[in-house]
Inverse folding.
């Protein structure tokens, strides 16, 4: 999914050669290399700079990753490998954690690191434990969705559950779509919510427990004109009136409203009475990290779980509720941003979100299976005559 695009060596007088530091009687120099996705550069790079400034003797290298290959692409390993080999730690989203874990790309983390995460996010860490496994320490989670983007003048006729949404798609061909899940955090959340909303036998098992969901996805595919290639493409298509409805995350909707991609007459609605599948950001340790360097990232983890970073980087405190959700979005900084924020997300909406039912994301192997099976049995068969959707077939790696 990601590849090393460019790197920034954090300054501020901290990146001193060891010999110079020793000659000046300064603290011993220690090094840390950590990577993060470029779409979060506005929040993560300043946070890394603040962290580096707080650590005497630290020479820190921030590796900025640029999305380059899809999660199911044969090139995934090759594109991840450059930053994987250079990083002592990486900040990754739920899907990259899952696909990397299914391919053995991360090391188990020390138990003390998991304890730190549980101390910061007791409810969310427990909910997301099947996905995180031993390889991911949860930094933050947003109330991902699914939320349906729509125009306010259509609010009265919105489908309220998957059955009604399928009827809507049949009656309005091409007016509902979702992005290819391998390219979309929005769609991954949408798919993982479906078995809960449709009453599938085992929502945690995409391979054998999703009979209703796979049949539903195959049927609605007949009424979808195309699958956009990215979340940004879907937002642009909707903004140009290319669709009436599509699933998004709460943070994705807010960002698009605040940057003007979506007009003020757009809103989001819940599906199935309000169900939230969280979307997380995790710290992982690449498999190659030598034994003597496996504690190097612990101070960074401790910093990112601290109150200042949780508020400034992860938007914690912007939503009410005991779960401690963040928004993967910087807090409003100006009066104008604050006003726009409250227009897009009024108080009654945030209070409702705080009481919605929570559902866990899939475990890593099942998450990867879901992405691959969609490509093989839904995406690759789009616009073909209906075929039976098998309950076996693609095996988890």
């Amino acid at each position: 999914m990601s590849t090393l695009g460019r790197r920034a060596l954090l300054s501020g007088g901290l990146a001193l050669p060891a010999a110079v530091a020793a000659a000046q009687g300064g603290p011993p120099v220690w090094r840390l290399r950590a990577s993060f996705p470029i779409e979060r550069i506005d929040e993560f790079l300043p946070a890394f700079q603040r962290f580096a400034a707080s650590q005497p003797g630290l020479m820190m290298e921030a590796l900025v990753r640029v999305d380059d290959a899809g999660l199911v692409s044969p090139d995934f390993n090759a594109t991840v490998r450059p930053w994987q080999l250079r990083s002592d730690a990486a900040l990754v989203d739920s899907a990259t954690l899952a696909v990397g874990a299914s391919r053995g790309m991360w090391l188990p983390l020390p138990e003390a690191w998991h304890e730190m995460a549980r101390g910061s996010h007791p409810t969310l860490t427990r909910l997301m434990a099947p996905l995180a496994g031993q390889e991911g320490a949860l930094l933050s989670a947003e109330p991902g969705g699914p939320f349906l983007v729509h125009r306010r003048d259509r609010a009265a006729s919105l489908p309220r559950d998957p059955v009604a949404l399928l009827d809507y798609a049949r009656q309005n061909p091409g007016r509902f779509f979702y992005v290819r899940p391998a390219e979309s955090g929005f769609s991954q959340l949408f798919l993982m919510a479906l078995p809960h909303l449709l009453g599938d036998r085992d929502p945690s098992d995409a391979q054998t427990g999703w009979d209703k969901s796979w049949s539903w996805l195959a049927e609605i595919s007949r009424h979808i004109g195309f699958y956009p290639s990215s979340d940004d493409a879907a937002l642009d298509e909707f903004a140009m009136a290319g669709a009436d409805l599509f699933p998004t995350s709460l943070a994705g909707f807010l960002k698009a409203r605040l940057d003007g991609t979506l007009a003020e007459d757009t809103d989001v609605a819940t599906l199935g009475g309000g169900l939230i599948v969280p979307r997380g950001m995790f710290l992982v340790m690449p498999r190659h990290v030598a034994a003597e360097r496996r504690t190097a990232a612990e101070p960074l983890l401790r910093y990112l779980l601290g109150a200042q970073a949780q508020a400034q980087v992860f938007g914690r405190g912007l939503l009410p509720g005991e779960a401690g959700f963040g928004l993967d979005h910087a807090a409003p900084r100006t009066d104008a941003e604050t006003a726009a924020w409250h227009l897009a997300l009024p108080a009654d909406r945030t209070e409702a979100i705080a009481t919605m039912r929570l559902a866990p994301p899939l475990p890593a192997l099942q998450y990867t299976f879901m992405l691959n099976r969609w490509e093989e049995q839904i995406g690759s068969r789009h616009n073909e005559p209906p075929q039976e959707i098998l309950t076996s077939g693609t095996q988890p790696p």
